[in-house]
Write the structure tokens for this entry.
Amino acid sequence: MVCTSHDVNEIDSMEARSELWRWGQMHKVPPKTVKAQIIRQALWYQCNCKWWYSDPVAEDELRCAQDLVFSRRGQFRSGHIWSKRWEKMYAILPLKAMIHILRPSDLCPESCAYDIVF
């Protein structure tokens, strides 16, 4: 897990996570793609690092990612986790942390994602 030093608005973070999950009920994240969900000042995203498989946005994975980040960094602090088993990365960030992000590959592990879905 990588931790950052940013606070994330509680309401915005919870709504972004809910909207990411809601989107995932009707769609799958294509291979080598980032699915990002922005709600006001919070960003949640999933990197699908698989080469050939479109992946769901699983509610249990979202909860697990949130629990791991918050248990290690504190409630509503930013961070992201990589799961080798899932071949995914989940991240929780304030929108202001995105100012230096220029392309999808900046969000995910090296060679993981080349496209983004909002």
Summary: The radius of gyration is 13 Å. The longest strand covers residues 33-39. The chain is about 25% helix and 30% strand. Strands lie at 2-7, 33-39, 42-48, 77-83, 88-94, 115-117.
